[in-house]
């Protein structure tokens, strides 16, 4: 009886009795969700156009952020380093297309997946060789990002909003809108969708696969750079940051591997779900359950829709 | 792909494999003191591992450069990169063991736990300086393991004592208080829990726990939301690596009063507090070594090692940082043990068994500290056959936005409470690892 | 000339179905076994045995386990590390409850526990496929890792939160714990791995293996001709987890000596997956090659600067190691996506006509 109360009643009582805190939990969940969605976006972009689950997205985030901080440390103004970093991500995209994707075209998914894990190792080694393993502080102010926080008195309590979190949400929304526009309205975007639908058909109407791949990897690189800035501002820039990539996996699974809106919705469901789960139900089992809760949430959705919320329907034929 | 190329690639790989296997491992040279350093400059904990590795290596190099080694014998150091990975840690141990190492410093609780039984059989001492297995402080049961100057339980008791001090001095003032404990959810962070729970019962405060899983180190908003809801009067932290800076930032974010947020000595790196900017001001941690470059020993390192470019530090300003100096202290303890062993045995080139005796008879006095250029750098330290940790004095330091400031005097942990627990834990460890070898090593004086 | 099958006639079905139908293969395997059982223990240094051969063999067994699931049955799993952990914890509990029993019995029995856990986490495989399933197995990975930390009963309420291997014997020989000799441990590992490879090779040649492969190649078609997908997939999860569990138990008992939960982290899962894919999906010999490649190569690279007398820092070597391993993985995948096992087949093909290729 006691257990039943703690599981089914008490968490809701807590939510109602401390509404300001509940609001804060929702906000934190929302921000986490947006940040997860940013990482997930990188995965989705690449999966959509090439069918590759790009495991290296996590290390690309770290690599981009380290380059940015490293360049700034050399005395380059932060905004200029940001532009240079975009250039670095472009070079990386071209390199990956030439050295990894092109020779591996038409191979099974798992081989390409493995190749991106190889790429991860390569980038970890290269990054540590260039930048060293020491953690670095993100140059938040120089990038004209707001810091500090504002507290509101609300619902008999208070709500603290970090300015950087608000900025993260705004930037994420802008990026999603821009990518959505890019995919649906521009010529390249339409070519991308064609490639995603059918490689061979796209080739036969004169779309260059290689070019498309460079573009999506470049786009994923820019997403990685922005993600790196946002996550770096929340903790610090170090190789430990690549672990956050694991958070993106349940998100893309939940949203569907090929859907940009899915990444956003998935991110928010996971972000808010795991925060509420951890805070209201976590203490019952000793806390620290976030690590697997996200996967269980994703798994629960999958059992209903095996292709994710917005994924393309899997049609099987013999 | 053509099959010729495939075959060629296969042969190339095979050739590499064979040449590598045929290469003999480097042989130990006579007339040297060999100290392998198990370090990690890569991986998720590199941020904490790098300054320690630099400090350890630089002090020993300084002895070589300045004094020509210890007692006229050069020290040969060899770093083995573990990446904080237990598999590689064991490999490092196995690969250096044949070269007559004097002592091991695993710098990871996981690796320490693996080395304790192995090293006891191979008769090589293990120095786990204020980490590893707390129970190993019992020298009667663990003759080959040393964990000076303090164990985690000493640390936890010191923090509780300090909090009581803040509340007016007496431990009874803790009654009715709420103390939060945020920790890395691994053996390391869970170790102090039994002690803290005991204290909570004895002194009447409530203990709330906030575990941070290793894969959530940089994503602690839930834990800190819980802290905001529970509003503990004090927060204690057992963090390491990337967990520390994130925790400090999150604490600042929920506007937790930073001067009531106290970390263990492994949470006190400059890189842990600095990223939080102004928000980190006031954050406190325990410490047992001096911070800064104002010690003659650090000046010597600068002159003999850093300036000639024999150090791996990225910039001179990083010399003298907290974890760097801790590495220096770690190497100082080893060097002093070698010195002691040389005096005891009359030999110049000692072996691992002598080293163990040297560690057991380590007696670092105020005079000796002054002589070594380390006055005020650490508390005097004395180990005995029975006590391999010493439960030495610690102090509290506070981050002022730029650097660490000492804000308390040196004070001792609660020896009377911790010691019986240590002995009990050591007995339990031995009981569950039967048959455990009886101590056969004489207590050399 | 040396490797020629011509003239080797089979006079019975049994001979035709033998594991090694060609005489040269039989000689080859006999030589390899002789080297493994006799030559290596005689000449190898303790370092070579303890840090190269023992881990290599243990990883091989785990790789065979994952290969059964991923290579033969086509179910991608990223939970190998956790399943190995289940084996290790099960063996630890069993041997601390019954300390007198032969430790080899518990090593093998621990596989049963991980097989059971594997079946539970294999249940979603009926509905979820491909990368989606990989993420479902990640749920197993993270949940089990959490459980290893959070259930103190699993590690006998140790203050350190880790499992420590005490001295245990089999047939009167000390096999585990700090006093166990390297050669004894090596023989124990070698015997188990050889035995279980033999079992796997026969299992996979029979109806079990064939039904796995049918599911892998096209599960709907397999279902239509009478292979029950749920039963087959769960069987694959069970067999695979059994192998991984035994490998995990051996990893702690015969190699590491103690383990924190983090020893069974996601990195271990990836390490094993590397071995499977580089070795070759669906190949037992490939499992050996993949494990050797991924485990031994970094050890060798670490030795190179020392052997050549180059003054390179240990950390720099490690960085370069990462770069080389990453580049080599990509390189091998490009050269031969079917892994080292395929390369070996091609070499064998060449040998067949050597020295007069046509």
Automatic annotation (TrEMBL), chain A:
**Principal cellular location given in the protein's record:** membrane
List the GO molecular function terms: transmembrane transporter activity
List where in the cell it is found. Answer: Cell membrane
Q: How does it sit in the membrane?
A: Multi-pass membrane protein
Cellular component, GO annotation: plasma membrane
Keywords, A to Z, come to: Amino-acid transport, Cell membrane, Membrane, Transmembrane, Transmembrane helix, Transport
Is DNA-binding found in the keyword set?
Answer: no
**CDD domains cross-referenced by the UniProt entry:** TM_PBP1_LivH_like
Checking Pfam families in the record gives: BPD_transp_2 (PF02653)
Question: Can the keyword Membrane be found in this entry's annotation?
Answer: yes
Top-rank taxon of the source lineage equals: Bacteria
Membrane-spanning ranges: 25-47, 59-90, 110-131, 166-183, 212-233, 239-272, 284-304
State any GO BP term from the record: amino acid transport
**What PANTHER family does UniProt report for this protein, alphabetically?**
ABC TRANSPORTER PERMEASE PROTEIN, BRANCHED-CHAIN AMINO ACID TRANSPORT SYSTEM PERMEASE PROTEIN LIVH
Family statement drawn from the similarity comment of this UniProt entry = Belongs to the binding-protein-dependent transport system permease family. LivHM subfamily.
- Record-given protein name: Branched-chain amino acid transport system permease protein
UniProtKB/TrEMBL annotation, chain B:
User: Is Signal among this UniProt entry's keywords?
Assistant: yes
| Top-level taxon in the UniProt lineage | Bacteria
Residue ranges of domain Leucine-binding protein in the record: 34-401
What would be one Pfam family of this protein? Peripla_BP_6
The stretch of residues making up the signal peptide is 1-28
Q: Which InterPro entries match?
A: Leu-bd, Peripla_BP_I, TAT_signal
Please report which protein family the annotation says this sequence is part of: Belongs to the leucine-binding protein family.
Which PANTHER family does this one have?
BLR6548 PROTEIN
Organism expressing this protein natively: Amorphus orientalis
Name of protein: Branched-chain amino acid transport system substrate-binding protein
Please provide the record's keywords in A-Z order: Signal
TrEMBL record, chain C:
Pfam families listed in its UniProt record: BPD_transp_2
Instruction: Provide the protein's localization.
Output: Cell membrane
Annotated TM spans: 27-44, 50-69, 76-97, 103-123, 130-149, 186-208, 234-256, 320-341
Q: Does the keyword Kinase apply?
A: no
For this UniProt record, the keywords arranged alphabetically read as follows: Cell membrane, Membrane, Transmembrane, Transmembrane helix
* Gene Ontology CC terms: plasma membrane
Q: Which GO terms describe its molecular function?
A: branched-chain amino acid transmembrane transporter activity
Q: How does it sit in the membrane?
A: Multi-pass membrane protein
**Which superkingdom?**
Bacteria
Record protein name field: Branched-chain amino acid transport system permease protein
Q: What is the lineage of its organism?
A: Bacteria, Pseudomonadati, Pseudomonadota, Alphaproteobacteria, Hyphomicrobiales
């Amino acid at each position: 009886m006691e257990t039943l109360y703690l599981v089914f009643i008490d968490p809701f009582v807590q939510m109602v009795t401390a509404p300001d805190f509940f609001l804060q939990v929702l906000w934190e969940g929302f921000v986490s969700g947006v940040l997860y969605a940013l990482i997930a976006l990188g995965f989705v972009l690449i999966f959509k156009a090439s069918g590759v689950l790009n495991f290296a997205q996590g290390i690309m985030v770290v690599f981009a952020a380290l380059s940015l901080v490293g360049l700034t440390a050399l005395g380059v103004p932060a905004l200029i380093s940001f532009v240079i970093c975009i250039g670095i991500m472009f070079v990386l995209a071209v390199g990956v297309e030439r050295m990894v994707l092109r020779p591996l075209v038409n191979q099974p998914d798992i081989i390409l997946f493995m190749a991106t894990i190889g790429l991860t190792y390569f980038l970890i080694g290269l990054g540590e060789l260039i930048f060293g393993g020491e953690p670095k502080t993100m140059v938040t102010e120089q990038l004209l990002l707001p810091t500090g926080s504002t507290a509101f008195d609300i619902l008999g309590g208070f709500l603290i909003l970090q300015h950087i979190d608000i900025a993260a949400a705004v930037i994420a929304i802008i990026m999603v809108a821009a990518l959505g526009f890019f995919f649906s309205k521009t010529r390249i975007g339409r070519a991308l969708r064609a490639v995603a639908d059918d490689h061979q058909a796209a080739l036969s109407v004169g779309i260059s696969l290689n070019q498309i791949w460079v573009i999506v990897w470049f786009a994923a690189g820019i997403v990685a750079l922005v993600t790196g800035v946002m996550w770096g501002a929340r903790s610090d820039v170090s190789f430990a940051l690549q672990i956050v990539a694991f958070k993106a996996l349940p998100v893309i699974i939940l949203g569907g591997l090929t859907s940009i809106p899915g990444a956003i919705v998935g991110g928010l469901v996971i972000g808010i779900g795991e925060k509420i789960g951890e805070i209201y139900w976590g203490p019952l089992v000793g806390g620290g359950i976030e690590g697997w809760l996200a996967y269980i949430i994703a798994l629960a959705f999958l059992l209903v829709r095996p292709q994710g919320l917005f994924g393309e329907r899997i049609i099987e034929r013999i | 792909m053509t099959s010729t190329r495939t075959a060629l690639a296969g042969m190339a790989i095979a050739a590499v494999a064979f040449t590598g296997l045929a290469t003999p491992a480097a042989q130990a040279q006579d007339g040297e003191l060999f100290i392998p350093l198990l370090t990690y400059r890569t991986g998720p904990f590199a941020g904490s591992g790098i300054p320690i590795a630099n400090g350890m290596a630089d002090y020993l190099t300084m002895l070589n450069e300045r004094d020509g080694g210890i007692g006229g014998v050069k020290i040969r150091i060899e770093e083995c990169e573990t990446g904080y990975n237990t598999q590689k840690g064991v490999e490092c141990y196995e690969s250096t063991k044949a070269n007559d190492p004097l002592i091991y410093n695993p710098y990871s609780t996981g690796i320490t736990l693996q080395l304790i039984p192995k090293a006891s059989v191979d008769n090589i001492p293990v120095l786990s300086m204020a980490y590893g297995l707390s129970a190993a402080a019992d020298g009667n049961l663990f003759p080959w393991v040393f964990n000076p100057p303090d164990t985690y339980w000493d640390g936890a008791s010191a923090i509780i004592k300090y909090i009581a001090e803040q509340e007016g001095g007496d431990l009874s003032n803790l009654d009715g208080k709420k103390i939060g404990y945020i920790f890395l959810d691994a053996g390391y962070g869970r170790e102090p829990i039994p002690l803290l729970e005991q204290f909570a019962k004895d002194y009447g405060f409530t203990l709330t726990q906030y575990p941070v899983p290793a894969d959530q180190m940089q994503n602690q908003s839930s834990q800190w939301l819980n802290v905001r809801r529970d509003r503990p009067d004090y927060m204690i932290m057992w963090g390491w690596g990337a967990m520390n800076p994130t925790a400090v930032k999150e604490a600042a974010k929920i506007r937790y009063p930073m001067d009531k947020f106290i970390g263990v000595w492994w949470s006190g790196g400059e890189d842990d507090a600095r990223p939080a900017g102004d928000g980190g001001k006031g954050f406190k941690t325990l410490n047992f070594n001096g911070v800064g470059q104002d010690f003659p020993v650090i000046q010597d390192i600068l002159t003999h090692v850093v300036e000639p470019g024999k150090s791996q530090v990225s910039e001179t300003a990083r010399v003298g940082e907290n974890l760097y100096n801790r590495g220096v202290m770690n190497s100082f303890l080893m060097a002093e043990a070698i010195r002691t062993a040389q005096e005891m045995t009359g030999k110049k080139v000692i072996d691992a068994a002598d080293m163990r005796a040297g560690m057991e008879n380590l007696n670092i006095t105020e005079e000796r500290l002054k002589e070594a250029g380390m006055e005020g750098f650490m508390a005097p330290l004395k180990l005995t056959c029975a006590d391999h940790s010493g439960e030495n004095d610690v102090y509290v330091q506070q981050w002022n936005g730029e650097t660490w400031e000492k804000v308390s005097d040196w004070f001792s942990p609660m020896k009377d409470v911790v010691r019986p627990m240590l002995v009990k834990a050591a007995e339990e460890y031995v009981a569950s690892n039967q048959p455990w070898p009886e101590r056969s090593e004489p207590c050399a004086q | 000339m040396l490797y020629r099958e011509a003239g080797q006639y089979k006079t019975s079905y049994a001979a035709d179905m033998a594991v090694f139908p060609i005489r040269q293969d039989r000689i080859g395997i006999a030589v390899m076994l002789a080297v493994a059982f006799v030559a290596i223990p005689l000449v190898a240094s303790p370092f070579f045995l303890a840090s190269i051969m023992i881990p290599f063999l243990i990883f091989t067994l785990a790789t065979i386990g994952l290969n059964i699931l991923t290579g033969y049955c086509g179910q991608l799993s990223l939970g190998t590390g956790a399943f190995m952990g289940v084996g290790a914890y099960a063996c630890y509990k069993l041997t601390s409850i019954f300390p007198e029993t032969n430790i080899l019995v518990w090593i093998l029995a621990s596989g049963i526990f991980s097989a059971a856990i594997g079946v539970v986490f294999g249940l979603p495989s009926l509905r979820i496929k491909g990368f989606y399933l990989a993420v479902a197995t990640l749920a197993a990975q993270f949940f089990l890792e959490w459980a290893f930390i959070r259930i103190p009963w699993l590690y006998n309420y140790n203050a350190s939160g880790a499992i420590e291997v005490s001295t245990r014997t089999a047939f009167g020989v000390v096999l585990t714990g700090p006093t166990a000799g390297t050669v004894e441990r090596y023989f124990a590992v070698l015997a188990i791995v050889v035995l279980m490879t033999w079992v796997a090779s026969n299992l996979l040649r029979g109806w079990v293996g064939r039904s796995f492969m049918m599911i892998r190649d096209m599960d709907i078609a397999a279902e239509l001709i009478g292979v029950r997908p749920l039963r087959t997939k769960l069987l694959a999860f069970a067999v695979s987890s059994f192998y991984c569990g035994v490998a995990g138990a051996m990893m702690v008992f015969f190699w590491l000596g103690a383990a924190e939960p983090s020893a069974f982290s996601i990195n271990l899962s990836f390490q094993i997956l590397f071995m499977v894919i580089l070795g070759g999906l669906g190949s037992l010999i490939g499992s050996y090659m993949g494990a050797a490649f991924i485990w031994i190569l970094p050890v060798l690279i670490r030795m190179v600067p020392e052997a050549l007398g180059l003054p390179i820092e240990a950390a720099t070597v490690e960085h370069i190691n990462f770069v080389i391993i990453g580049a080599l993985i990509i390189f091998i995948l490009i050269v031969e996506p079917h892994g080292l096992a395929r390369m070996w087949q091609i070499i064998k093909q060449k040998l067949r006509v050597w020295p007069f290729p046509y």
